[in-house]
Amino acid sequence: MKDNVAVGLLGVGVVGSGVINLIEKHQEKLAHQLGCGVHVKSALVRNLDKQRDTGADMNGTMLTTDPDAVLGDPEIDVVVEVMGGIDEAREVILKAFKAKKHVVTANKDLVALHGGELHEAAERNKCDFYYEASVAGGIPILRGITDGFASDHIEQLMGIVNGTTNYIMTKMNQEGLSYEAALQEAQERGFAEADPASDVEGLDAARKMAILARLAFSTYIDLEDVEVTGIKDIDIADLQYSDSLGFTMKLIGFANFDGTQVEVNVQPVLISKQHPLADVKNEYNAVYVYGEAIGEAMFYGAGAGSMPTASAVISDVVTVIKNMHRGVTGGQFVEPRFKKRLKSDEQRFGEYYFRVHATDEAGVFSRISSLFNELDISFKQILQNPSEDDDVAEIVVITHRTSLHNMQKALEELKNLEQVKAIKSFYKVEGDADA
Amino acid sequence: MKDNVAVGLLGVGVVGSGVINLIEKHQEKLAHQLGCGVHVKSALVRNLDKQRDTGADMNGTMLTTDPDAVLGDPEIDVVVEVMGGIDEAREVILKAFKAKKHVVTANKDLVALHGGELHEAAERNKCDFYYEASVAGGIPILRGITDGFASDHIEQLMGIVNGTTNYIMTKMNQEGLSYEAALQEAQERGFAEADPASDVEGLDAARKMAILARLAFSTYIDLEDVEVTGIKDIDIADLQYSDSLGFTMKLIGFANFDGTQVEVNVQPVLISKQHPLADVKNEYNAVYVYGEAIGEAMFYGAGAGSMPTASAVISDVVTVIKNMHRGVTGGQFVEPRFKKRLKSDEQRFGEYYFRVHATDEAGVFSRISSLFNELDISFKQILQNPSEDDDVAEIVVITHRTSLHNMQKALEELKNLEQVKAIKSFYKVEGDADA
To answer: What Å distances lie between residue B337 and A29, A194, B263, CA to CA?
Structure first.
């Protein structure tokens, strides 16, 4: 057993700085748990001259611009990849495994795209590969799913796994801000990037859902299997109707598995105010898990940030070092149990919300409801208001449970009704308003 | 590696039946994860003739009234203790360790009282000892704390860890029921026992908080170190005032640690409606963890019930079997890092709520506030109402932060004020009403 395990760090940005800081700060706690020290021996950076404030003494850490100075160092056992990006990160991680180094990463893009390949490379080289920090920052959700639910069948996952969009939607819901105003506030407060595309279009959430679904359901899910709708086109009117019907609108990652087939998507959803996810506000993240035996469970916390993410990275480093001491690195990974089978739209069920503008004349609502009735879709909640335009009625409906296929067919026919001016919106609904 | 690991079950009650059911039902998932089968070979019961409906085929399981038929069976590697009680359970577990069997238990009373002794016996015999199910049923909170926060300093834990009292208080809060009426409803719906004493007096929660605090702070906490106040004496008037001030009253287990000294207690607390714990309703449990690096995190789910608890038990059995396969059983336990040092009342700080009845005359409030002022306690929120009795004013105050010692001194002096008729209530406050 080594006296002091050397870690090689790839990247000293927001998360990397946190890793250096926490490892220095918590030397005593780490030494107590592990029976040995841990130190960051060297760190790969792009620019040697840049000023860095990690809040910790960097004298002990050699900075280098050469990946091989880290990967080729025989003293280094654990490589922490927090440089971000995809191709270069993939290459250095594969190189690290070849050099028999264990790898911990916070890189969700990489794991979502190349998780399978990286796991296989790790196994081949009897190395550990962990990525707790890649989903929901400091929340120990991957451990929770793989260890805590080991004997349960997870039926469903719902996640608020993107802090930026949850912050924006909280402001839109609570303060009635428009999407643009809420985005601007998020940017000013550091919760959204200058280019917010990957967050607000739902791609970041999709990557995390692919990782979660893969672990929860033991089947490979590719990123392109995740259907994504972002939040940019949300109309404040739908937030107000949601509220008055007993719901809150949130960007929700949804995954379910019936034992054979799987469905994974990210979309704005009307979620019942009674549902635990409805209370997850601002930049916070949460993952709701429904297990056949356990029933409802939820994991809540900070989904991003230097310290929460670094803390998740180091919890993986601790696991790796414990495995090293016990001589059991590698071999954690279990091949997925199920072949990937995606649900078709006929096999996807839900309750749905839609809002239409129709001519304001007698019998219109009855015409609409009989159209749905013919497709066996019945209505659960209905609101009808005269719209600002005097000749137009605004009709809001929440349906009972039906297939997505059926619902899409109904909307198609609705569009062709002479009395219907426009289908303004269409969203999925989760939970009962008065549960 | 064995083809099929034999489990010995001690007790086939609510949780034991769930264990048998889940192990049978999830054979395939368990075999896939473990690379071997798992079966319940024999089970200790009190009465062989009792009808049991485990929802599973019991033919494969031998029932016995003799503990030694389980503990003495060389084929059995893992013993699951779900018989409950303390002395007998302690004895059989110690015997199991002597026979080199790993032990998984759901017995919070036992772990809270004898956890240290049992851990030592496990270590001596190189056996595993796990008890995830002992706190918060199916929620993987013990793993979350020990593994997920491995590199963080946990500063504070707050837990709704007793479903019965949370159900009762939810009904009192939401429907204005009296304590007695809410208890009766809880009993009718199966959320409270016929003799609810250990729940409503806070003892059950205290046991769980002792276990949580021990793991989170790496120091021994004895059950008698946990200060306990139950919910029986809660006046509906205080729930109403809490509500109008922006708080919800809940029975909260509280533990904090400043790096040297520790405080653990269970008491009714006014918790801000903005706090994630305020939304935990009915029989649900949740543990809120504040880590220096991670910040806020919360684990939510079903805190009891046959299936959730059995699922947590089996997740421990899975961990044990994985350890067996890798040859690393025993050695998980780490001696507490810190000597136990409890905070005195001078070192315990908080904001406090109190309600007094005073004579309804000019200058009374000013007299009260100057009394507090002399002790450096200032007021944050104040409500004053004429009481039903015309000559009496009801005064409700939430203070700014002060020491418990100081606060108790102030209440003592208040009691002696001529104008004060009665101190009706006194509670701790967590969080800001308008955070």
So the answer is: 8, 45, 16
Burial of A175 (0-12, 13-18, 19+ CB in 10 A): exposed
Q: Is B108 annotated as a binding residue?
A: yes
Interface with chain B: mutation pick from A132, A142, A294, highest number of B CBs within 10 Å: A294
pLDDT in tens, B396-418: 999 999 999 999 999 999 999 99
- Cβ-Cβ contacts under 8 Å for B275 (sequence gap 6 or more): B288, B430, B431, B435
- Report the SS3 class of residue A140: coil
Task: Using pLDDT thresholds of 50, 70 and 90, give the confidence band for residue A174.
Answer: very high
Query: In order of start, what are the domains of chain B with their CATH numbers?
Result: 4-137+306-326 (3.40.50.720), 141-302 (3.30.360.10), 345-430 (3.30.70.260)
CB-facing half-sphere around the CA of A149: CA atoms within 13 A: 31
Task: Return the closest-CA partner of residue A141 out of B374, B140, B104.
Answer: B140
**For residues B249 and B336, what is the distance between their CA atoms, to the nearest angstrom?**
34
Size of interface A-B (CB pairs under 8 A): 195
Give the separation between CA A61 and CA A57, rounded to whole angstroms.
9
On the CB side of A127, how many CA atoms lie within 13 Å of its CA? 25
pLDDT of residue B269 exceeding 70, the answer is yes
Task: Look at residue A60 in the predicted model and tell me its pLDDT.
Answer: 80
In this predicted structure, the answer to whether residue A190 has a pLDDT above a threshold of 60 is yes
What interface predicted TM-score (ipTM) does this complex get? 0.89
The backbone torsions φ and ψ at residue B195, rounded to the nearest 5 degrees and listed phi first, read -105, 100
What average pLDDT does this structure show over B304-323?
93
Give residue B435's pLDDT: 56
**Other Cβ atoms within 10 Å of B155 Cβ, number:** 16
Tokens of A430: 């989760």
**Which tokens sit at B152?**
């963080």
- Span B75-104, pLDDT tens digits: 999 999 999 999 999 999 999 999 999 999
Q: Is there a contact between B297 and A298 if contact means CB atoms under 8 Å apart? A: no
- For residue B355, is pLDDT > 60? yes
- Please state the length of chain A: 435
Name the pLDDT band for A331 (thresholds 50, 70, 90).
confident
Q: Which of A147, A153, A279 lies at the smallest CB-CB distance from B26?
A: A153
